[in-house]
Amino acid sequence: MMWLSWRQVRAQTLIVVAALVALAFYLVLTGPHLSHLYHSTVATCQVRNDCGPVLNNFQSQFHLGRLAGIVVLVAPALVGVFWGAPLIAKELESGTYRLAWTQSISRSRWIITKFCLVGLSSMVVVGLLSLMYTWWSSAYLLAYDGQFMLVNYVTRDVVPIGYAAFAFALGVAAGALIRRSVAAMAATLVGYVLFLAGFTLWVRPHLISPLRRSTAFPLPFSGRGQGAPLGSNDLLVSQQTTNAAGRVIGQNGGIGPNGATLFSSVRGAPSGTTRFDGVGICPNKFTVHPITANPPSRTVGNLIATEVNKCVRSFHLREVVSYQPVSRYWTFQWYELTIFIVLALALAGFSWWWVRRRIS
Predict the structure, then answer these.
(1) b/e map of 151-168 (b: 16 or more CB within 10 Å)?
(2) Which residue of 6, 159, 199, 275 has the smallest Cβ count within 10 Å?
(3) pLDDT per residue over 88-141, tens digit each?
(4) What is the C-alpha separation between 92 and 88, in angstroms, rounded?
C-alpha cells in the first residue's frame, strides 16, 4: 500500500524536490553575502539615521531571492490543490479505489496510509521552504523590521507548516465530498484563501488580549506624528480617537470614518466661528479660517496652527491604540500552528469517517 501510494505521487514529489534543491542552492549562495552587506552598510547607516540610498541599493540586490517568499506564501495552497484535492477524488472519479479495497486492504488503512505519506511529506516540504527563507531573509528583517507584517509573518518560522497541513486536509476532505478532481481543487483553493483571510483579519489579532495605550490626541501642527507610537515590529489592532466622555469618535488617528482631522465654517454664526468636524464647535474664534489660507504665509500659518491647536486641546481628546507587542511574536506563531494542526486533524478525521461510512 505504501509503495502504491508513493507511485501515485512520485512525479509531483520529484518535481518539488528538484525545485527545493535549486532554491536551497541559490539561497545558500546568496545568504551569506546578503548578511555581510547588511552588517557592512545598513547597520552602519542605521546608527547615523541616514539609510535612504543604502537601503535602496540593499533592496535591489536580490530580487530573485525574494521570490522565495512568494513561493512560501503560495506553497500551502498548492499543496492543498495539487496534493490534497486529487488524493481521494482522483481514485473516486476513476473507480480505482474499488481495486484497492478488494486486495485485503481496509478503508481505514487505505486513507490513513495516504494521509500519512502525502500529508507529512507536504508539511516537511513547506517546513524546509520556510526554514530556508527564514534564514535567508533574516538580514532583510533586521533592515526593515516588521515581524508582524503580513508577508513576513505568514512566510517565516513555523506557521507555514500549519497552513500546509490545513490546506492538505482541506483538499482531501473536498475531494472526498465532491468526488471530482478539478472541482475539488477549485473548492480547496477558494476555501483555503477565504479561511486564511478571515483568520488573519478577525482571529489572529485577538489570540491574546491586546495591550492598550492612551495618549493625548496629537495636535495637527505639532509635528508629533502619532499620539501613541508603536514599534515597527508591533502589530496594530486598532487606533481610535475618543472624546472627553470616552466615546469613540474616530478611527485611524483622526476624526470620522476616513481618519481625517477637518475644520469647517459654521453657517449663520459670527465670523470666525469654526466647527471641529465630528467633535463640536471650537470655543475660540479663528482669525483666519484654515481652509481660506491656502497656501498660507508663514505668519498666517503660525496663527492658524495656534488657533487650531487651542481648539483641539479644549476637547480633551484621547488616542487609544490596541496592539500586540513584538515580544509575543513566538507565542502567536505557536498558537497559530497549533490551531491549524488541530483543524487539519479534524478535517482528516472527517475524511476518514466519510470514506468508511459514506462511500460505497
Answers:
(1) ebbbbbbbbbbbbbbbbb
(2) 6
(3) 888 888 776 666 666 667 778 778 888 888 899 889 989 999 999 999 888 878
(4) 6
